[in-house]
Amino acid sequence: MSESANPAADAAEDEEASADATTVAPANGAAAVVAALESADVETAFGVQGGAIMPVYDALYSSSIEHVTMAHEQGAAHAADAYGVVTGTPGVCLATSGPGATNLVTGIADASMDSDAMLALTGQVPSHMVGSDAFQETDTTGVTAPITKHNYFASDSKTVGDVVGEAFALAEVGRPGPTLVDLPKDVSFGETDRAPKLPEAPARSKPDPEADAEEVEAAASVIERAEKPLCLFGGGVVKGDATDEARAFAREHGIPVVTTMPGIGSFPEDDDLCLSWAGMHGTGYANMAISHTDCLIAVGTRFDDRLTGGVDTFAPGADVVHVDIDPAEISKNVHADYPVVGDAGTVLEQLEVAMERSPDAKEWCEQCTAWREEYPMDYAVDADEPVKPQFVVEAFDAATGDDAIVTTGVGQHQMWAAQYWTFTEPRTFVSSHGLGTMGYGLPGAIGARLAADDDREIVCFDGDGSFLMTIQELSVAVRENLDITVVVLNNEYIGMVRQWQDAFFEGRHMASEYDWMPEFDKLAEAFGARGFRIDSYDEVADVVGEALAYDGPSVVDAHIDPRENVYPMVSSGGANGEFALTEDQL
Amino acid sequence: MAGPRPDERPQPTARRNAQGIRIDPDAEAEPAQRTAVISALVDHEPGVLSRVSGLFSRRQFNIESLTVGPTTVEGHARITLVIHETEPGIDQAKKQLGKLKPVIALGELGDNAVRSELVLLKVRGDEPDKVHAITEMYEGRTLDAGPRTITVEITGHERKIDDAVDAFRQFGIIEISRTGQTALERGDSPTTPGEEPGHSAATDDATPNYDD
Ligand SMILES: Cc1ncc(C[n+]2csc(CCOP(=O)(O)OP(=O)(O)O)c2C)c(N)n1
Is A131 an 8 Å CB contact of chain B? Predict the structure, then answer.
């Protein structure tokens, strides 16, 4: 977005410049950086200005790339991450050196944990000052080495465009992840007349999508023989665009499906075969199925401990077939009896060809259905009592289409959103899974909004604590008039912490009571957004309708039952099948 | 919510061990650790060593030694790592290492591989003849001999180095510096898969040819 007061003149200038970009070679390193982004078809980038990144911004001035100025670099990183999740191509974020770069760190780490493709560009002090503790110097490649797929220190204006193109391509090839290019100011300013090469990942970083035929045969035959087969679809199914193949495979062979939380949307939750997601706050029936399966067909999951509980009790009777594009995930947390290294969609098709018959799983399917009836997901609605958060989630779900996108912060509200929204499409649940970053929701919604078609609803479920962490991004949503609805499930607690204190710290609410929360509806109005408030059940329907109908950012401050806790719950390190349904079962 | 309480639900009795491997409860054994020598051919670029060592510390791999140096191919370096881990740990270390972008190829060396280490030892100079004799015994070299100290260099297999260090203890070791192991596969077998031992030097004039 240009900051100029004359948008019409800007548009004309933009058009001219983009026509030029293809014919005229870049003048300096920064222009080469932008040319590389353009040839990677980057349409939107998120960032904050600053000294060391200024040359790049100057080059963006005459580019067709839409730049969205965020209020904080953490917001830029989360927005880029969510943008990438929704579009399926790497999101791009920019920051200056030092504090700009360190503010990106949480968002980069978040993308890394969730295998989200993202490219971060950071300014750096001029090369001759690197290492001197210069003003706003941080060892950015050092700081981000453990949380990036790879990072680059650009050292030459002539090749910096190639490096940026490679970093972009590397972010999305194979198992996706964030990459970073650190750009010293002299490299950005340095002259070059070389147009960057087309973005391409290094050959040795491109994994073979096809799995070894013997591995596939072995997996196919153990699946055929299984009596209690279970599909476990992880984030890799969504990120690898393998949902069609995954759905076809499970349906063809009548195998029940559980997903991980990042795998939400890989299989429609309203399908009879779907047991929803497993793990700490997953459904009782998904966790019972995990505990009792004799053949777990795990695709694109890294067996996070929030899914497995204690590995000793995870699917203890199962032959584990583990399909993953990243060989390092095989047998990292849970031993794979049948490892299959390859792209999720390709491998599922290979398995399909290799399988001669379906497993005989009729009884097992009946058992899964019985568990579904035995441990239903429900909650009590009492008109005289404070509103239950689950009710609010369901009300928004009912009022929006299948392709609506949900983003969240981290805490109880995230779990309720995941539990009580019925997801049917991939890339519609955009959340911070592996890192669990409070504050992801609002910038995530901004990124998702800019990535998605205008007619799709974007609903952010946030906690009061999480919302406060990145609330400043509301100013961006207002400036850009982004049609998003933030629903703060306000319990005046950092509720998930309170829940653990009740369960494991004898109810001592040390630092978890947030009864000093602002009135979010009024705060929204102060930012220039629409504000709504819910205090009772009879207000829900109207507010849901009005907030969704409003064409711009709105914030619903939903005052929910502050005592409500998230169940079912598998205690950390516990057995999946031993989930608690109430606190006294913990 | 309905449904029986956790303790009333049917639960499987099977178990996995800490590595996630299904176990027979009667035959559960602690996985044994072993020493593995891993050779990685990497792009010789700034930061590669810190990426490798950072990976190892971040993932808590038990690293014994790490050596690095250029090869005959310009732009390539070889990192030799010795780790002491369980079988799944070694497997994981190799896979994680293989994911690093600057890693070109890597392999684990067999027992048969040539391995060597260098140690510098500074001992008291009170008994120069005896020090000399021990140095000779271990085919070492005297690098510095003064009235108060003698510094020697010994190279060879890790066990030989250990023995030599033991033997020098009688003189009082003042300082010691060990490089850690470096290793190559024997004969025609490449040290890392796909590597063509030595050939590059002969075809590329820009790289020094050590046979000259
Ligand atoms: C940045 C960050 N700091 C701390 C935590 C630890 N934490 C996990 S959940 C949680 C409570 C979240 O509270 P809130 O956003 O109000 O959501 P609620 O649980 O009440 O729905 C906290 C503090 C975290 N996940 N992220």
Answer: no
Atom of ligand 1 nearest to the CA of A413: 21
Distance in Å, CA A548 to ligand 1 centroid: 26
Quick check: B95 contacting A, CB < 8 Å? yes
Are B33-109 and B114-184 in the same CATH fold?
Answer: yes
Per-domain boundaries in chain B: 33-109, 114-184
β-sheet bridge partners, residue B80: B39, B67
Q: Which residues line ligand 1 (CB under 6 A)?
A: A 409-413, 436-438, 463-466, 489, 491, 493-497
Residues of A in contact with B5 (CB under 8 A): 585
Q: Kindly identify which residue of chain B lies nearest to residue A141, measuring between CA atoms.
A: B47
Catalytic residue among A1, A16, A135, A227: A135
Mean pLDDT, chain A cut into blocks of 10 residues (586 residues total): 44 44 72 98 98 98 97 98 98 98 98 98 97 96 97 97 98 98 98 95 96 98 98 98 98 98 98 98 98 98 96 96 98 97 98 98 97 95 96 98 98 98 98 98 98 98 98 98 98 97 95 96 98 98 98 98 97 94 90
Which among A423, A427, A420 has a CA at the least distance from the CA of A271? A423
- Look at chain B and count its residues: 212
A288 → chain B, closest CA residue: B11
> May I ask the CATH architecture of the domain B33-109?
2-Layer Sandwich (3.30)
Domains located in chain A, CATH noted: 26-205 (3.40.50.970), 213-374 (3.40.50.1220), 389-567 (3.40.50.970)
Give residues with Cβ within 8 angstroms of A425, minimum separation 6.
Answer: A265, A268, A402, A403
State the pLDDT confidence band at B209, using cuts at 50, 70 and 90.
very low
Going by C-alpha positions, the residue among A270, A301, A297 that lies closest to residue A377 is: A270
**pTM of structure:** 0.93
Using alpha carbons, list the distances in angstroms from residue A6 to A18, A45, A57, A477.
Answer: 18, 21, 19, 21
Which atom of ligand 1 sits closest to the CA of residue A409?
15
Measure CB to CB from residue B104 to each of A204, A376, A567 and give the nearest one.
A204
By CA distance, what is B16's nearest residue in A? A312
CATH superfamily label, B114-184: ACT-like. Chain A, domain 2 (3.30.70.1150)
- DSSP calls for A109-130: HHHHHTT--EEEEEEE--GGGT
Pair of tokens at residue A149 = 């797929």
